Amino acid sequence: MSKVIISCAITGAVHTPTMSPHLPITPDQIAAQAIEAAEAGASVLHLHARDPDNGMPTPDPNVFMQFLPRIKQSTNAIVNITTGGGQGMSIDERLAAPLRASPELCSLNMGSMNFGMYPMLGKYKSFQHPWEAEHLEASRDWIFRNTFKDIEAILERLGKGHGTKFEFECYDTAHLYTLAHFLDRKLVTPPLFVQSIFGILGGTGADSENLLHAKRIADKLFGNEYRWSVMAAGKHQMPFITMGAINGANVRVGLEDSLFAGKGRLATSNAEQVRLIRSIFEPLSLEIATPAEARELLALKGGDNVAF
């Protein structure tokens, strides 16, 4: 087994300010929590942006550029910018920040899917901002869109255009076959960074059988041409990614995926989750990859070749 790459998804576009006082909203908060997560051992920082006034997800590259340079100046971590954005964003909006920043790595969802966040409505009696309940309810009738044409455009504009590589987000095994299709067409280049995602309503459930099945399919399709990573939503986060790492996976933590650091206990920061997973891995003799080691494992272009 190679060393484990820890990715940390700092804020995302799912959780809302009401859900945790520790969710980073402003550029200052996002930068500070990302830097702290890197210091705790995360070698990849997965980043979204939010409107600093109300916490609503935003694709505005000007907001991204308020925290990206600070993170780069303060850490050696790999910056991974979303191309998934958030609910209601067009593909041009979703690509605006990464095209401006030209990062080493971007997330890329490998298909369209239902993406249900509305069950969280029942957990809160009221919300700080009107948009929060509207955002959650709207997901009842929302399809996240990434068609074959959309994926081709992202691969062309970012991959070919900027030398950016991708964290291929696969919410079910069908997405693995879609990725294999693009590999057959030579539109993606190994080593592929495959993120298997579990526990999102509309995607694969967080069952151990599904984790092992995803690995079997990925092994069948990609052989030794991929690096596997696992993430799971909510209460499944820590146990599921631990099981993934024992089976050879890299892992992703962060407040985008779960707001907790134990049953009923909100995580006070992204770094707390990084430290928690390290405290599990190190007694199991699972070594943590440094950013330099992660860059080599993923064959990235290097932090000096970005535009922020």
How would you sum up this structure, described in words?
This protein is α/β, with parallel strands linked by helices and 308 residues long. It has one domain (6-115, 145-305): Aldolase class I (TIM Barrel). The chain is 38% helix and 16% strand. The strands form three sheets. It has an eight-stranded parallel beta barrel with strand order 1-2-5-6-9-10-11-12, surrounded by eight helices. A two-stranded antiparallel ribbon has the order 3-4. A two-stranded antiparallel sheet has the order 7-8. Helix 7 runs parallel beside helix 8. The protein is globular and about 50 Å long. The two termini are 34 Å apart.
Q: Name the beta content range.
A: 15-25%
User: According to CATH, what is the class?
Assistant: Alpha Beta
Count of DSSP E strands?
Answer: 12
Helix content: 25-40%
The CATH architecture: Alpha-Beta Barrel
Instruction: Count up the helices.
Output: 11
- In CATH, the homologous superfamily goes by the name Aldolase class I
**Structural class category:** alpha/beta
Overall domain count = 1
Low-confidence stretches: none
Give the C-alpha Rg: 18 Å
Give the strand line-up of the largest sheet. 1-2-5-6-9-10-11-12
Order of helices and strands: EHEEEHHEHEEHEHEHEHEHEHH
Distance between the termini: 34 Å
Coarse morphology:
globular
The overall pLDDT, averaged over residues, is 97
Quick tags:
single chain, alpha/beta, two-stranded antiparallel ribbon, eight-stranded parallel β-barrel, 308 residues, 12 strands, TIM Barrel, 11 helices
